[in-house]
Design goal:
By secondary structure, the chain is mainly α. Helices cover 71% and strands 0% of the residues. The structure holds fe (ii) ion (FE2) (2 copies).
């Protein structure tokens, strides 16, 4: 790795400089990633024909006992996975389809494609969610598409996906837990394990960018932490759904701060980085201030949630 550069690198220079790190991490990823099969997680013989063309039985909530918030989270997680064509477009456009970057883009897309396939098959066969509502929501969601607010910036995008993959990992894992269904839990734990490897890949890349151009990397991380939104935030009714998801402890501000931002920032050693220019220092200060703000907001939410739980218990 070359010594720290104070002058900002162009987007093309960043991609070129990081190329060897992509190649190394691709090898690492392929060595540790375990092959798995979506069809093994689906209880096919529990399936029944639906109404409509084949004249079977319409879906009813009693078909599969599940807390309402588990259905909400499963649908949000699946719709998030469904928007893969937009994500692929974003990273293929930015990272390119050649060399190690291109190999990663395609491999990552193939792995992500498995998530939507597995979860949809599972939900359809078990009748865990309304398949008509799900399909309509998918049409609306995918028709809107997804654009990353920092889609033209390599380091911002790497920071975003580092946080986002970890956020998705936590959300899948906790959704599995809330379903209370051991098979669903196993499936979502399997998906979460993929997301974790994705996070490590992107986190390692940005770590290399910190070595290469620390101030630029710090700026990217601070900007992304400041305006982070979950990839599914374009889902219809997302605000209401995400509150339900937070109230159930599947994904809330505390987890976002303490289980996503803080550990990744620690891995990048942001608090001890040297060789920052004025903007790099300013970015780090913003980051610190933002974590404090988040801490307060998370505590306020937790107090409200506790008070709400107490009210419900008293009824
Ligand atoms: Fe995924
Ligand atoms: Fe992922």
């Amino acid at each position: 790795m070359t010594a720290a550069i104070t002058r900002p690198l162009s987007q093309t220079a960043l991609l070129t400089e990081l190329d060897s790190v992509v190649a190394q991490n691709l090898d690492r990823h392929l060595a540790v990633a375990k092959e798995w099969f979506p069809h093994e997680y689906v209880p096919w013989s529990d399936g029944r024909t639906f109404d409509g063309l084949l004249g079977g039985e319409a879906w009813s909530p009693e078909d599969f006992e599940l807390p309402e918030v588990a259905r909400t989270a499963l649908v949000v997680n699946l719709l998030t996975e469904d928007n893969l064509p937009s994500y692929h477009h974003e990273i293929a456009t930015l990272f390119g389809r050649d060399g190690a970057w291109g190999t990663w883009v395609h491999r990552w897309t193939a792995e992500e494609g498995r998530h939507g396939v597995a979860i949809r098959d599972y939900l359809t066969v078990t009748r865990a969610v309304d398949p008509v509502a799900l399909e309509r929501a998918r049409m609306v969601h995918m028709s809107t598409g997804y654009t990353n607010v920092h889609s033209n910036e390599v380091l911002h995008s790497l920071a975003y996906v580092s946080f986002q993959e970890l956020a998705t990992r936590i959300s899948h894992r906790n959704t599995g837990r809330v379903t209370g269904d051991p098979l669903c839990e196993q499936l979502l734990a399997r998906v979460a394990a993929d997301e974790n490897l994705h996070m490590i890949f992107y986190r390692n890349l940005l770590n290399a960018a910190f070595e290469l151009s620390p101030s630029q990397a710090m700026r990217a991380v601070a900007d992304v932490a400041a305006d982070f939104a979950m990839p599914g935030n374009g889902i219809e009714g997302f605000a209401r759904k995400s509150v339900a998801i937070a109230l159930a402890g599947i994904y809330d501000l505390r987890q976002h701060r303490d289980e996503v931002l803080v550990p990744v920032l620690r891995q990048w050693d942001v608090w001890n980085r040297t060789g920052l220019d004025a903007d790099g220092e300013a970015a780090r200060e913003q980051l610190g201030a933002q974590l404090e703000e988040l801490d307060k907001a998370a505590s306020r939410f937790e107090e409200k949630r506790d008070a709400r739980a107490a009210r419900l218990a008293a009824r």
